[in-house]
Design brief:
By secondary structure, the protein is mainly alpha-helical. Helix content is 42%, strand content 5%. The chain is built from three helices and two strands, in the order αααββ. It has a two-stranded antiparallel sheet. The mean pLDDT is 80.
C-alpha cells in the first residue's frame, strides 16, 4: 500500500490561524467545521461535497463516535467513517 500524506500539527494550526482571521463569524465557523471534519475523518473533498445529512447516523455507537456513510468514495465505493 502507498503511504498516505497527512497534514502535520503545524500545518493544521496554520489553517486554524488563518480561519481565525475571517471577519464574518458564520463564514469563520463554517470553514472551521469543514477543516475539523477533514482532519478528524480523513474525507476527501469530493466525498464531503456529496455527503448528505441523511448519510450521518445521529445515534452514537458504543465507541462514542457518530458514523457517517460515504457513498461516492474513491473508486465509487461506499465506506463508513
Amino acid at each position: 500500500k502507498r503511504e498516505i500524506d497527512v497534514l502535520s500539527d503545524t500545518e493544521i494550526n496554520k489553517l486554524f490561524d488563518y480561519i481565525g482571521t475571517i471577519k464574518n463569524e458564520l463564514d469563520r465557523e463554517t470553514q472551521r467545521t469543514i477543516i475539523m471534519f477533514f482532519v478528524d475523518t480523513g474525507l476527501r473533498v469530493s466525498e464531503l461535497a456529496f455527503l448528505k445529512l441523511s448519510d450521518i447516523q445521529w445515534d452514537k455507537c458504543s465507541s462514542g463516535y457518530v458514523p457517517a456513510l460515504v457513498r461516492n468514495g474513491k473508486g465509487n465505493r461506499e465506506r463508513t467513517i
